Amino acid sequence: MSGRDLPLHARIRRELEARIRDGRWAPGTRIPTEAELSEQYGVSRITVQRALRDLADAGMVVRYRRRGTFVAQTAGEHNLLRATGLLLSGPEMHGDHRVISAQVLLARQAALELPDVAGDEAVVQVERHKLSADGARVVAAELAVLPFRVAPDLVDQPLITTTTHVYLRNRGVALGRSRLYVEPYALDDEHAELFGLPVGTPVFRWLRITWSADGDVVELLRVILPADSSRFYVETSLNGPPS
Predict the structure, then answer these.
(1) Sign of dihedral through CA atoms 13, 98, 139, 208?
(2) pLDDT of 116-163, one tens digit each?
(3) What is the pLDDT of residue 1?
(4) In CATH, what number does 3-75 get?
(5) Model confidence at 93, in pLDDT bands (50, 70, 90)?
(6) Measured distance CA(152)–CA(187) in Å, rounded
(7) Domain spans of the chain?
(8) 167-203 as b/e, with b when 16 or more CB fall inside 10 Å?
(9) How far apart are CA 37 and CA 164, in angstroms?
(10) In the prediction, which pLDDT does 80 show?
(11) Does 78-233 match 3-75 at the fold level?
């Protein structure tokens, strides 16, 4: 899918993010108002608001009432709580995808083994590459496996922008909990070529397991991520009463 085929809000978000990534908008820069962006792109303010909300969810901008929207001082950093799915108003990691494959097959044939899923049960396997803001390079390699019973039409979705947690919730699947493992990993031949790095380069490998509210595994996601792609953090509020 080309950029012209993306939803309007995604196209606007991509263009605004590119200005932040390439330094045209430095940290602290006040970006144009919703009204100015609506006029510039010839779209409704609702469309612009969605694009700005996605950027805010990704930590790229900070929005202030009556003051406007500013490029975040930590642009390029990502909250790990988004990766676990605890924050679900936008993509787990900001950016579009290049879809490598999307297929239905038996669980025993999948590249990842879904816990507590029989080998003869149908599953959906999606392999994608996460792209940089300008679409010029791959910043992560993703492989997701889901039971077909919870994702029967996933392969028909616009996988360039779709995230699995949002998809599952939109289908009415009640998500119960998610666990994210982060471990060091030495690049193999395939991924070394993909990222343009030497074989054996240390990178991150994430493995996310998601359960439904009923306790069933509904997704297994593996992400291979070069250490220089982004900075990751966990931030939580300390405003509550001490326990």
Answers:
(1) positive
(2) 999 999 999 999 999 876 677 788 999 999 999 999 999 999 999 888
(3) 46
(4) 1.10.10.10
(5) low
(6) 33
(7) 3-75, 78-233
(8) bbeeeebebeebebeeeebebeeebbebbebeeeeeb
(9) 30
(10) 65
(11) no
8 A C-beta contact, residue 51 and residue 16: yes
Question: Regarding the domain delimited by 78-233, which CATH topology (the fold level of the hierarchy) does it fall under?
Answer: Chorismate lyase (3.40.1410)
For residue 89, the model assigns a pLDDT of 40
pTM higher than 0.70: no
* Structure tokens, 223: 């992400």
Q: How far is CA 45 from CA 8, 15, 19, 65, 133, in A?
A: 12, 16, 20, 16, 23
Those residues with Cβ within 8 angstroms of residue 187's Cβ, 6 or more apart along the chain or in another chain: 195, 197, 198, 199, 200, 201, 202, 203, 224
Q: What percent of the chain has pLDDT over 90?
A: 54
